[in-house]
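Tokens in:
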């Protein structure tokens, strides 16, 4: 059965009960929207192929472009892409996988995820009035967690606050970096602040923030755990788990370990090279520019430097932790397969994403 038809059929069976019942540790026998849609990477890509959106990546395939579209996608194209991106739907809890380049919110009249949600909900028979709980940033692909139930939203927000207080990562990203970190795993700790650099508002690190700057919230102490999942050809596939939240935190933290994200056209310019050895340039005076890749990497990616400005950010919100449905059950992990361009880049670079990367 076609996905949208299946979901519409499930939605018609919804009862008057407003919320997903794991909130009180039980499921109603008439829990709304009980059809579940958790797809493996193969199923997810198959749906995209059926809808004519993206070709699945096959071993040895070179047909999938790793470049972003030459022109921004229109409303109908984005809706078709999102329609094939449903990762999870149960009760009033919904998760989709957002494409890179689509902002969650924006100015009136702009194409954003929020501006598309009403039409998307109608197409897939999803609950109305969905609100964003967690979401990948504009240039980041990956999970967006949504709900139409205020109790569910509050419960999840409280759960994520508790995770942060306990030092338990609730979000896991995967990223392709243009260099291999010196350590195979570790932590990046630094203060971060927003700073105006000429015409750009940029995030800059503050190694030793003063108590006053922290109290005035001019600077925030931040922490990210990283782990190298695979490395080859001078590049790496990293697992990233931020334990704090700050704009562009992951991109800036990865420059500090001299391993910028592939497709980072803002902060990668802070990592320079002398005789092939990387070093940090001053963040306060280094302006954004299109990422410069060495010839060896360009050859591996089958690109020319003139094309690199179309290279999307290879940062993907891969997994998201959900609270246990009851005291006797365990937490659930939602997983969104990386987009086709990301998988094709892994293939070209000889990198492999483990099926179930260790979240710890």
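Residues out:
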């Amino acid at each position: 059965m076609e996905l949208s038809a299946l979901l519409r059929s499930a939605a018609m069976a919804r009862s008057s009960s407003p919320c997903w019942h794991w909130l009180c540790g039980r499921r109603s026998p008439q829990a709304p929207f009980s059809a579940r849609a958790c797809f493996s990477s193969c199923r997810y890509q198959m749906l995209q192929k059926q809808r004519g959106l993206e070709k699945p990546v096959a071993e040895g395939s070179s047909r999938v472009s790793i470049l972003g579209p030459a022109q921004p996608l229109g409303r109908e194209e984005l809706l078709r892409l999102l329609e094939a991106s449903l990762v999870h739907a149960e009760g009033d809890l919904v998760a989709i996988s957002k494409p890179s380049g689509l902002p969650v919110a924006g100015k009136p009249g702009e194409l954003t995820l929020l501006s598309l949600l009403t039409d998307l909900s109608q197409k897939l028979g999803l609950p109305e009035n969905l609100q964003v709980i967690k979401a990948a940033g504009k240039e980041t692909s990956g999970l967006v967690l949504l709900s139409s139930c205020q109790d569910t939203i509050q419960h999840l927000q409280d759960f994520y606050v508790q995770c942060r207080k306990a030092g338990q990562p609730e979000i896991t990203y995967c990223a392709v970096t243009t260099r291999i970190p010196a350590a195979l795993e570790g932590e990046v700790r630094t203060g971060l602040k927003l700073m105006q650099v000429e015409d750009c508002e940029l995030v800059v690190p503050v190694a030793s923030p003063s108590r006053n700057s922290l109290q005035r919230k001019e600077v925030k102490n931040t922490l990210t755990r990283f782990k190298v999942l695979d490395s080859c050809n001078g590049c790496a596939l990293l697992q990233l788990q931020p334990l704090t939240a700050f704009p562009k935190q992951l991109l800036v933290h990865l420059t500090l370990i001299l391993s910028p994200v592939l497709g980072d056209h803002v902060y990668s310019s802070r990592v320079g090279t002398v005789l092939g050895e990387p070093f940090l340039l001053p963040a306060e005076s280094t302006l954004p520019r299109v990422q410069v890749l060495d010839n060896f990497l360009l050859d591996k990616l089958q690109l020319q430097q003139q094309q690199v400005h179309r290279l999307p950010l290879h940062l993907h919100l891969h997994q998201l932790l959900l609270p246990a449905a009851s005291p006797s059950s365990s937490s659930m992990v939602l997983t969104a397969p990386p987009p086709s361009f990301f998988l094709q880049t892994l293939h070209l670079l000889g990198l492999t994403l483990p099926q179930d990367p260790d979240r710890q």
